[in-house]
Batch of 4 targets.
Target 1
Amino acid sequence: MSGLLDAALSNPWGMLDTMLEGPLHPGGTAATAQLLDRAGVGPETRLLDVGCGAGDALSVAQDRGADAIGIDPEPSTDRAVQGDATALPIKSGSVNVLLAECVLCLTDLDAALAEANRVLGDGGRLALSDVVVDGNRPDVPDTVAEALCLTGARGRDRLTDRVEAAGFEIQTVSDHHDDLLEMRDQVTDRIDYEGLLGVMGERGERA
């Protein structure tokens, strides 16, 4: 059991990838599709997916006819280029929609929002989903907290305030708490969650 725990802590993203089907964020592909609907992504929409990972959202956007490319620090798809949310290698005003799913909490939010503003053209939309935490962050190992997008998580009001301060007008907000619980259940159904926490001792009990 301790060997499994060590492997999970050394590569939490890899562990989640084996446990879950589709994108590694609450709601998966269905949540991405809903977000693209709200951002009006359709044929010929120029979309930039920041932190695109394996490119699942790019596929959803391209199936709609969008001209979609991705940016990721370590791209694992040929539809993406290497880059960072705070320094996008994209021309100013060249994007209709910037998609950021569970990624801005992992970077400098103000710098990333400024870059989003720069690359979006007139009438451009920011399609944002992120993890927010009510109260204190759960007491889990740092690597696990990073995998679950908890290291930079903010309260919802603080996040929306920062988005508005960056010059964006928030049109809709949707709560995906139930999707997060479903994601948790998918993982706990496939691994001995209580056993792993037991190996962690008192810290596992707190978690």
Target 2
Amino acid sequence: MGILFTILSILLVIDAILLVIIVLMQKTKGAEIGAIFGSGAAAAVLGAGASNILTKITYWLGGIFLFLVFALSYIHHKTVTSGSVVNEIPSQQAPVKQQEQTK
């Protein structure tokens, strides 16, 4: 499980970086701050339908991001609960406080 967790973590970081880049490349409806981060270059390379392509890529990357987060959470939950110390000590064997003997 450790290798799978590492691979999924690396994929999550790559997906998060790509998601940030794609969101910053999109044109905004307000102040056009997207032009500062290369929105004009994306339109020049991808053509007039660049906003539709970028929107679809954003949806896919967001879905992949959510899937990876849930998968990592599930794997982490399984590894933590399987190696829990609390489950190994039955309640009958819990240490009992000894009473002091009086003289």
Target 3
Amino acid sequence: MRQFSRHRRPAGQSSKGQPIRFWGRHAVLAALANPERTVKRIWGTREALGQLDLPPVVPINYADVTDLARLVARDAPHQGLVIEVDPLESIYLGDLLQEEVDADSRRPLIILDQVTDPHNIGAVLRSAAAFDAAAIVTQDRHSPPESGVIARSASGALETVPWVRVVNLSRALEEIAEAQYWRIGLMGDTDTVLGSVLDGNKVALVLGSEGDGMRHNVMEHCDVLAKLPISPRMESLNISNAAAIALYAVATATP
């Protein structure tokens, strides 16, 4: 059986960094339910905490709404709950690809090139969860770290969808090709429509940032470039909307 190499983090780096705070019911409940997530403490109103079945090992701090507002980003909708957690452990691309091959899985991958807005990352994670994508893959230097904004935007999907960070996205795409994925770069400047290149193969959807799009070297590591069939009156879509539509197209394609 083919054993895929691992894309590791640069020497000296670790997925474990400073504790981060999540807020909002969906993000907090998902973190508590994730056995891979280390929960350090939780703050909440008596009403909100009274609705939770909390593990006895989690330190609980009762607080009013005003106190909670001081713990999170300005105007963040905390819904009476704030939690402090450690970042998740690194997921290595080779491990994930091997698991997908061993399971004979045909779930798609989402590759994001220079997408830095945490709201967009969170929304893409949410769409990835909705359409059962295997993972999202980003480059360390061109993507944000885990944060409360991402967790809130992902509405729990940060805990369920693997997020793989790699050092070099082009090399990662080479490894993805070795795992028999058809790499489709999404862009507007092409005559090829996405639906015409979906033939039942395993798919890795590659999306660039809204401003600069895909970098040239990343584009060269795609097997085909395709566009979504949107109206010419619309120049482009938000990256998270484009990802959701593309994932739907993959999910409903017939070989």
Target 4
Amino acid sequence: MVVGGGRVARRKVRGLLEAGARVRVISPEATAELVHLARSGRIEWLDRPYRQGDLSGALLVFAATDNQQVQEAVRQEAEATGQLINVADDPGRCSFHVPAVVRRGR
């Protein structure tokens, strides 16, 4: 589950897809790449704001919005339900971290 539809969310989605994950994105807006991935059926995109209860069934949750209230609401729901949460802009509020990866050529 990725809550957010901007550049940071796009990077999270790319990594999840490369790992073979089924990905759901929740955001009232999305980058052109995320829209394309949704239209091609590679991800599920809920074109609306996050709502309490949206995290149901998710194994990993990424909060990747630019709205601190939404970030906190997502974090609180994930923690309350025992889900793994990564808050993109605040490592101290994460239950797991994603390492940086540098790719150069093949």
